[in-house]
């Protein structure tokens, strides 16, 4: 599950984020401990802790002293909002820029996307 080329602590944070977005881990419920992440991925607990602490800094997780880390209320909404902006910057912007170079209007791009979606859903 750990992929080369990306820091492990980033992958741990992304795994937790994905589980929150997907509803696997709900708001106000605990996340696995850093020791559990470390044992599962066979990594140093400090590395796992760095990924968890990154989410604490972002307000996605919070610590209940003596109990563990929990998903903050509103975390899913914040993550979806941030990911939506990343999607816009990484994919939509470049897509529209390339379309403009080719003389394709945003409306034509939308039609292409709709047609592609229809074709893939009937396959």
What does this entry look like structurally?
This protein is mainly alpha-helical and 123 residues long. It has two domains: 66 residues, Winged helix-like DNA-binding domain superfamily/Winged helix DNA-binding domain (Arc Repressor Mutant, subunit A, Orthogonal Bundle), CATH 1.10.10.10; 47 residues, no CATH class. 64% of the residues lie in helices and 7% in strands. It has five helices and two strands. It has a two-stranded antiparallel sheet. A hairpin with a 3-residue loop joins strand 1 and strand 2. Helix 1 crosses helix 3. The model has no long low-confidence stretch (mean pLDDT 93). InterPro entries: Tscrpt_reg_HTH_GntR, WH-like_DNA-bd_sf, WH_DNA-bd_sf. It comes from Cryobacterium luteum. One of its GO terms (molecular function) is DNA-binding transcription factor activity. Keywords: DNA-binding, Transcription, Transcription regulation. It holds the Pfam family GntR.
Topology:
Elements (H helix, E strand, L loop, with lengths): L7 H14 L12 H8 L3 H13 L3 E4 L3 E4 L3 H27 L4 H17 L1
Antiparallel strand pairs: 1-2
